[in-house]
Amino acid sequence: MTKILIPFYSAYGHIHTMAKAVAEGAKDVEGVEVKIVRIPEFDEVQKAMSGQDAYVQAQDAQEDLPVATHDDLKWADGIIWGIPTRYGSMPAQMKQYIDSAGGLWMNGDLEGKVTSTFISSGSIHGGQETTAITTIVPLLHFGLIYVGLPYGENPEQLTTDGIGGSPYAASTVAGPDGSNQPDERDLTMAKRLGKRVASVSKSLRG
Ligand SMILES: Cc1cc2nc3c(=O)[nH]c(=O)nc-3n(C[C@H](O)[C@H](O)[C@H](O)COP(=O)(O)O)c2cc1C
Asked: Which of 39, 47, 73, 152 has its CA 20 to 30 A from that of 100?
């Protein structure tokens, strides 16, 4: 079996929804096993947000998912990271997980595995692309092989509509107040990303 891991952090659920679409696409490839894992919330953020219904509902919806471990990263042949934008780059919750995996970096445990990202931001120009691009930097330090989202397979990107999708990552626009849900086109591109990473992982695994 080719093993695909989807570690995600999601405060309000948009990235969680995208994670399910990515998983669906990966499962379209024969002989692929998919595991979705969540990056845990910081206690202080949980406390600060506990009065927000949208946040509480989104957290409740993911509480049964397993928490991401370092063994999950070792287990996977392909890793697709789900990341909501924070000030144009990844959230500290995700960075903490990545930083805490320094032992895997030292051992070269992730070298040669396949990787990609899917992103969410509040606004169209709020940093979707910078979040994907800046995340590529630590992923390359691990020796991961980054797979993008090419125009040829994703013509939906060629639009002036306020949706996600770029050559760097699948993505979605949550809206300034978080009230948008991922557009059908965002979910379609997320599925294709999952399928692409799974196919490349399977080929490289041999
Ligand atoms: C502290 C903080 C910083 C944020 N920074 C940005 C930003 O730089 N650009 C942007 O477009 N959205 C920003 N947002 C909005 C989030 O990206 C948005 O809530 C998220 O993509 C929704 O995904 P989720 O529902 O999976 O959490 C920020 C939100 C928070 C809480």
From this structure: 47
